Amino acid sequence: RREPLALINLKKKNEETGEEELASRLDHCKAKATRHIFLIRHSQYNLDGRADKDRTLTPLGREQAELTGRRLASLGLKFDQIIHSSMTRATETTEIISKYLPGVKKISTDLLREGAPIEPDPPVSHWKPEAVQYYEDGARIEAAFRNFIHRADAKQEEDSYEIFVCHANVIRYIVCRALQFPPEGWLRMSLNNGSITHLVIRPNGRVALRALGDTGFMPPEKITRT
């Protein structure tokens, strides 16, 4: 999942074949396929809910998820899987989207749950979590980035298309990390509910951002950021 040379134990290099064997081993570790990562922010949800189970999608949020599902289906891509945050609003968004993508397996993970990834720079006055939250959430969200955002496995022959349904803070942090931008700038971006962010990871490890928070497929009156 990293630079092929970093995956090889150079101490085991055969002294007789030398560079030829090294080149062969490098080829064995090189990615061949491109990964397309679609990061979906959950739809609008009930902000008055005290516990996560109470923070269900609003009627408008359910409409937004329907629109997002239709949009993803209209792309005509063969999606490999949907990985989603285990929080209620992300799970409900996933269930609605998946209706439009029959047969695509769904996987729930705690790694993609919402949180405070890293202290933003510049700071904002309206959102100041306790410092300990950055340590707790930040390590988990960084683990999500390292676990999910990487070049294709060397054994993967064809390009893949994967959907991740999660949260604004998680998506913004992942975008900064993937593009090698200072992650402290994550709060300078804003994402609408049900929006689509599209990252492309090439076999050489280079990442391109094709779309950030796209909701152009929604009528203006359906767009929210809550």
Automatic annotation (TrEMBL):
Domain of life the protein comes from: Eukaryota
The EC number(s) this enzyme carries: 3.1.3.16
Reaction(s) catalysed by this chain's protein: O-phospho-L-seryl-[protein] + H2O = L-seryl-[protein] + phosphate; O-phospho-L-threonyl-[protein] + H2O = L-threonyl-[protein] + phosphate
UniProt entry keywords in alphabetical sequence: Hydrolase, Membrane, Mitochondrion, Mitochondrion outer membrane, Necrosis
Subcellular location: Mitochondrion outer membrane
Pfam family, one: His_Phos_1
Main location as per UniProt: mitochondrion
Any one annotated GO CC term: mitochondrial outer membrane
GO annotation terms (biological process): positive regulation of mitochondrial fission; programmed cell death
Entry-linked Gene3D superfamilies: Phosphoglycerate mutase-like
Any GO molecular function: protein serine/threonine phosphatase activity
Family named by the database record: Belongs to the phosphoglycerate mutase family. BPG-dependent PGAM subfamily.
Listed name of the protein: Serine/threonine-protein phosphatase PGAM5, mitochondrial
Organism: Alectura lathami
Biological classification of the source: Eukaryota, Metazoa, Chordata, Craniata, Vertebrata
